[in-house]
Amino acid sequence: MAQAGTRFSRQPAHVLILDISHPFNHDALVNVYQSLTDFFSLVTHMNGPTRVPLFGLTTIGQYAETIFPLQAIKGNFARLYSVFTEFKRSAMDAPMQSSEPESFSQGFKDVLSQYQRQQQTCRQVTNSPCQLEITIMTCQPAHSISSQVGKLSESMDLNCLKKVQVLSLKCLESVQNDLNSSISPPGRM
To answer: Which position among 32, 49, 50, 150 has the lowest Cβ density within 10 Å, counted as fewest Cβ atoms?
Structure first.
């Protein structure tokens, strides 16, 4: 059983990079908000060692912005909830903008520099190096985001990364456009 505790103490830090640029829309925002709230409600209240010791949230759109800096989440649900709620409220008030080309690379670099600052603390607490997992959630095609990560890996030291995962969401607006283009108006054959 001590072996399991050792494995849990070496769980990687997690950062979610959320691409809120068009075609990401308000429906997708509400779904992501609800999913994050539900997930962290569960994770922050579980007894025992945590599988998500450190978490951070960064958004990219017109510019990169750190919404929740990389920090411990155990017992920290009230802070996470207030951050998620404030982020949702402010994002719902603004139209979704087009992404600037450098915002993704800036957000990725910000995440890595945050992690490197946090790594010293992690080593002091666990006496072993932490690793970082990055999940990029976007409505853009996954291959375009993966190619941007590939270009960044050529110019940056990514040895601290355990995994980079790209999740491509199909936004309701694009689904609706697909449906509208495939349905012919009545009376036309």
So the answer is: 150
CA torsion angle for 178, 169, 140, 65 (degrees, to 10)?
140
CATH of the domain at 126: 3.40.50.410
Q: Model confidence over 71-94: pLDDT tens digits?
A: 888 888 999 999 999 999 988 887
Closest CA to 104 of 62, 134, 57, 157: 62
Q: Which of 3, 59, 62 is nearest to 28 (CA)?
A: 59
- The DSSP secondary structure of 71-97, one letter per residue, reads EE-TT-HHHHHHHHHHHHHHHHHSPPP
Is the distance from CB of 15 to CB of 57 less than 8 angstroms?
yes
